[in-house]
Design brief:
By secondary structure, the protein is α/β, with parallel strands linked by helices. It contains 10 helices and 8 strands. The protein folds into 2 domains: 225 residues, Spore Coat Polysaccharide Biosynthesis Protein SpsA, Chain A; 71 residues. The protein has an 8-stranded mixed sheet, sandwiched between helices. Strand 1, helix 1 and strand 2 form a beta-alpha-beta unit. The chain binds uridine-5'-diphosphate and magnesium ion (MG). The site of magnesium ion has 5 residues, from loops.
Length: 312
């Protein structure tokens, strides 16, 4: 069974030689091909990859015309990998290559279509990030159409069947963890302790993480829209009750002037609610806008192979 390993790389020149050595040590017994995807790095990543591929015919690379993001890099790799089994692995060794042969053994038994890795701890990660991530996964599991196991990574070995399904999901806004769950198939989970990045720096900052979380929500959940509609119904109901109260006060009790404070509070509150609702609806419209444009997910400007899907 040929295993294709897709490795998204963004500014990983420092990390790549370390990764390759560790990978080769850990996976000597496997029949594999490596697909490095250079996601528009601005350091020497591309030169390193050219060197790798010149020395080893099992190593291929795709190099993007600019930075398209990790999701696009994963997509490009999956589209071009030809193995019977395909996996996605970070370049920073946070996805331990030593798990791969165990994953392959489990898949070979034929009972599962996917063997996925999850971290049982987040040790070494900044506490704030851990807390926010935990909160995000709790919430998304509550309100969205997909279930995402806490600690789940993109690191998983998939059968050809499943990979074809994942590629067939051609949406522009990709949230892989959601897509992997959405396509179904039987998944076996194996746990491991968190591993810290071996060299280089994380590519995430707080804004990137927030964008990732927002993408996760809005791509796999209609709950925000439902909440907005329910709020609308609720507010209308209370407004109606209040109108009855005012009219009653005016004609029965003879009051005609109500307090300024309550008026201002109501106006401010409703104004805020309306802006929030428009913002939420805007999130969906923005996504529809991008999807209908049908832009490619990625553009490859260089590769060691000719017969690849260069634009998709
Ligand atoms: N990555 C990428 N494109 C980007 C950002 C990251 O291909 O725009 C790759 C990066 O090179 C690494 C993987 O995605 O192989 C995970 O990135 P990182 O380790 O920075 O994320 P973290 O592990 O901190 O979540
Ligand atoms: Mg990492």
């Amino acid at each position: 069974m040929l295993i294709s390993v897709v490795v998204p790389c963004y500014n990983e020149e420092e990390m790549l030689p370390v990764f390759l050595k560790e990978f080769k040590d850990m996976c000597k017994n496997l029949d594999y091909e490596l697909w490095f995807v250079n996601d528009g790095s601005i350091d020497g990543t591309l030169e390193v990859l050219r060197g790798f591929s010149a020395k080893d015919e099992r190593i291929h690379y795709l190099s993007f015309s600019r930075n398209f993001g990790k999701e696009s890099a994963i997509f490009a790799g999956l589209c071009n990998a030809g193995g019977d089994y395909v996996t996605v692995m970070d370049a920073d060794l946070q996805d331990p290559p030593e798990l791969l042969s165990r994953m392959a053994d489990i898949l070979a038994e034929g009972r599962y279509d996917c063997v996925a890795a999850k971290r049982v701890s987040r040790k070494g990660e900044p506490i704030v990030r851990s807390l926010l991530s935990k909160g995000f996964y709790k919430l998304i599991n509550k309100i969205s159409d997909v279930k995402i196991v806490d600690g789940a990574r993109d690191y998983r070995l998939m059968s050809r069947k499943m990979v074809d399904a994942v590629i067939a999901m051609s949406e522009y806004n990709r949230f892989s963890k959601g897509i992997f769950d959405w396509v179904g198939f039987k998944t076996h989970w194996i746990s491991y302790e968190n591993v810290e990045r071996k060299a280089g720096k994380t590519k995430w900052n707080i804004f990137g993480l927030i964008k990732y979380a927002v993408d996760g929500f809005f791509n796999f959940s209609q709950a925000p829209l439902r909440i907005v509609s329910s709020l609308g119904v609720l507010v209308t109901f209370f407004a109606f009750v209040y109108i009855i109260y005012i009219v009653y006060s005016k004609y029965v009790n003879g009051y005609s002037i109500e307090g300024w404070t309550s008026m201002t509070s109501i106006i401010l509150f409703l104004g805020g609610l309306q802006l929030l609702s428009i913002g939420i609806i805007g999130q969906y419209i923005a996504r529809i806008f991008l999807e209908t444009k049908n832009r490619p997910h990625y553009i490859v400007s260089e590769s060691d192979k000719d017969n690849i899907i260069k634009i998709r």
